[in-house]
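My current task is to audit a protein record that another person submitted. Thanks in advance; the entry in question is below:
***
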Amino acid sequence: MEFEAVIGLEIHVELNCTTKLFCDCPNRPGDDPNANTCPTCLWLPGAMPRLSEQALEKASLLCLALGAELQPRSAFDQKVYYYPDLPKGYQLSQAHLPLARGGGVDIIDEDGSPCRLRIHHVHMEEDVAKLVHEMEGRVPISLVDFNRAGAPLVEIVTEPDFRAPHQAMEFLKALRTQVRYVGASECSMENGTMRCDANISVRPRGTTQMNTKVEVKNMNSVRHVGDAIAYEIERQGASVQAGEAVVLHTRLWDPDKKATLPMRAKFEGPTVPDPSVSAIELSREWIERMRAQLPEMPAARAERLVEQHGLTRDEALSLSADPESADFLEALVAEGVAPRMAMHWLTTQLLPAVRERRQGLGTSPVSPVRLAGLLHMLAKEEVNAKAARDVLAQMFESDRRPEAIVQACGFSQISDRGALDDLIDQVIRGQESAVANYRAGQEKALGFLVGQVMQASRGKANPKVIRELLVERLGA
């Protein structure tokens, strides 16, 4: 029997707000344990939660970016369950009246066809505390850090539209891009600001029945999501083939074993309206004001990069997926750098150098203005490409202008024909076989001779002028 998967995702996105969702404590989970707490996020009796306006605005922009429809009225519920990271016994979430409904994300499927994956709803909720498991001597202990308690979250619940790991992975990438564009979150699975749970079931291909699902957690990268889903599809298919029932429960993904492991039985506690947080009522005017704040989104930006700057469609799509990179390129163009040169140096030189140093474009000392200065020198043939790469490396270590680095290090390009004649004579005399090969019609010999002259000039010669001179001399 051939099976197909039915997959739905639940994605938690941590909003990058200044404060927590219901109090004024700093939203900095990484600070010293329990440094950012108050009676509200410690859930002490009598404390009254107060909804953050900034969190509501960022959550609303996120919903609009995903094409979801903001609801005129939404409200918080008590999601009741007990766990050590939630000692008050419930979590404030929006179970019955979510902030937004509908929406979706467009991806390209494995066969190259467009595919829209729908969103069921988007709701706000508070994060729970963090459990820290340690050993005290030979005794295992668990500690609770309340810095994360009350951090503002948005949960995106999809329709069960997914049929393959590829779709889930592409959905997460596209969603991450959309959210980053509106500035609502960094959406880093590695750093925990985006977390994904997958609900997976299998059924005979061609049927429409919905079978028992299994929830998989603990996936901290897009690749792990794909691997976990693929493993679970195979595991459940084998169980059904063997006549075993699939039981509703939660599993963890173990990236070392590359397998899902049973965690606990699935428990859904009751949800009841919360009387302490007022309902959210959004006017049409407020919603339209939020909509007006939406920036140019990735698909529209990619089209404009193609039309305005002559990038290929693949280049534009790749670049627009990262707003920081797209902003950097457009800043270079605004400084007068040719778009194709800007694209080439950004993607082949600057981005790899930034990643190697574990920096971001926004925190790198190589600003668009500084890089533009170097590229202007390259365009004017004041330095060659090799020297420009050396200058770029030094720009990470010094705040000097690229012109000053070129002058101090003697990187200026030699383009004067008279100054190159002696070097060319020297190479021609020392490479008689290469000269003979070129005169016999072997074009690649010319490249070898250009390289020899460059080596003799210690990389300072203008390769374009060298080539011209060699062609003149050897053609005579």
